[in-house]
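lol so apparently i was supposed to do this last week
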Amino acid sequence: MTAPIDRAPSERAGVEPAGGEPAAGGHAAGAPRDAVASFDRMWAQLGALGRSPETGGYRRFAWTRTDDDLREWFLGECATRGLDVVEDRAGNQWAWWGDPDSTPGVVIGSHLDSVPDGGPFDGPLGVVSALAVVDALRAQGLQPDVPLGVVNFVDEEGARFGVACAGSRIVTGVLDADRARSLTDVDGVTMAQAWRAAGRDPASLGPDPEAVRRIGRFVELHVEQGKALALAPDGSEDLTDPTRSVAIGTDIWPHGRWRVDLPGEANHAGTTRLEDRRDAMLSLADVVHATRSSAVRRGCVATVGKVHVQPGGVNAIASHVTAWLDARGQSAPAVRATVEAVTAEAESLGGTVREESWTPTTDFDAPLVGRLRQVLPDAPLLGTGAGHDAGILASQGVSAAMIFVRNPTGVSHAPDEFATDEDCHHGVAALTAVVTDLCSRKDADAMGDAR
Ligand SMILES: [Zn+2]
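anyway here it is w/ zinc ion bound
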């Protein structure tokens, strides 16, 4: 076991709760006042970065000037806390309190990038909360027995290069380095070129087993991307129940993407009789309706959110439509059955459906989830239909789990995404309580045994 790092004489070894404000009633009622103040300060600072004045949404895309500002902000916050930051071979930033090579550490954090016109919480809430946890531990005079890491994963949303969780996929080797380097954005810029423009050497991009080995446990705090916590068990809206301010993530639903190609015949929109047309857009309409009805029947969610129409003229009948189907659900067979029904519809129209990606159910680490349940006994358990870096790590055998913070609007990936100040502070308190538990010497020893 590692000896605690000497930071300040006032800091005591071990993380047994002392003097601070421990978890109460299962929702970890209070974070120390200093940590709340620091959370509020960081949140206000970050709010200005990458926000579009026209839409009010955030445009924080990987390896852009805005991304660089966000990474600089992260470096600055870590520097003020005396944390060493290392960048791995995927471009993720890891700030360490303690020596990460002494023993695998406990890592918290999330990502700072966004979807086009995204909300303020998806990602940044987890990073800012993690930094506030460091402040909370110090305010209570606690020092972790194992290294504590705060991570900013790069390119989680995949908004620029089209692959979600690119940072965690590259570092774990799930995304092949050559493929990553050759991914292009809408302007035809490859990830390799974007790396070079951002002052990195694209030749060094690739898996980084050493960075992954340093993660003993990973807990990602994230805004909820639906309304489960905002609704009482009877279905009515209840934003006051303190035991529902945070939830413990249990698993990520199986999900996938499919490409649908539908043929038609180009012709004049004014002179071609309706009965003579082969209109690919009509086929698309049938496929979209089939998507909806087959998902409803099987309790899944399925979406056609992107289409490409050829030739794409206002006065031309569509000769070809390519559409992309996203399907998810609690049960993998139900998702598969939904896609089979859509495929049957597309094939009956002369079209084809091709799978582009499939991710089976990702269960978070059961013993880790069990530890979170002990620390937060009243917090509901929640599966999610959204992908996360925690899911990529879990799929690669890293012990990972998540904490979700209530979102009254239920909206995500849009400016209306929301969490109240009070619930954000509850989130910091909950994460502090979890880290306090996981960074205890007892757990650290158990973690060493498991390896
Ligand atoms: Zn996210």
